[in-house]
TrEMBL record:
InterPro entries: ROH1-like. Residues 1-15 form the signal peptide. PANTHER family: BPS1-LIKE PROTEIN. Belongs to the ROH1 family. It is a single-pass membrane protein. Keywords: Membrane, Signal, Transmembrane, Transmembrane helix. It comes from the Eukaryota. It comes from Arundo donax. Pfam families: ROH1-like (PF05633). This is Uncharacterized protein. GO terms for cellular component: membrane.
Length: 148
């Protein structure tokens, strides 16, 4: 259970922005690898771990916010909008205004996609957490453990 929780936390660090995300993806922070032969779920877990590590090493993702494609797209759209605003003289002319509006609409679309995509993920993470807490509580309340 500890190995799974460690991998889940490590994957969330890789996916979501944090100040030292790249440091968290280094080899010495990797979850301990379970023995491949002993546990039937070990090979998929190790494959996921390797995939996340490789994705974190990609040059275009090295200095980005996180590995979630939505966060990456949000960062790119925000940069594009900031560049369009900085390059535009005040008041906005016709072409510049259209460019700024297009960048703002693209950013709004990415934000909507992020909201729509992350709400189910948030719900699944919450349900998983509650399931883990319930199983731990059931284990602590078991008659075997209490000596009843």
């Amino acid at each position: 259970m500890g190995c799974l929780l460690h991998l889940a936390a490590w994957a969330l660090v890789a996916a979501v922005p944090c100040p030292d995300r790249f440091g968290a993806l280094q080899a010495h922070h990797l979850p301990a690898a379970p023995p491949r032969a002993a546990l039937p779920w070990a090979p998929p877990l190790l494959a996921l771990q390797e995939r996340l590590t490789e994705e974190g090493k990609r040059k275009d993702r090295r200095n980005s916010c996180g590995l979630l494609k939505e966060i990456h797209a949000l960062e790119k759209c925000a940069q594009r909008l900031a560049e369009a605003i900085d390059a535009a003289p005040v008041p906005l002319a016709g072409d510049r205004e259209a460019e700024v509006r297009e960048a703002a609409a693209e950013l709004a679309a990415v934000c909507a996609a992020m909201r729509d995509g992350l709400e189910p993920l948030e719900r699944q993470v919450r349900e998983g957490f509650h399931r883990i807490v319930r199983s731990r509580m059931e284990g602590l309340d078991s008659p075997m453990l209490n000596g009843d």
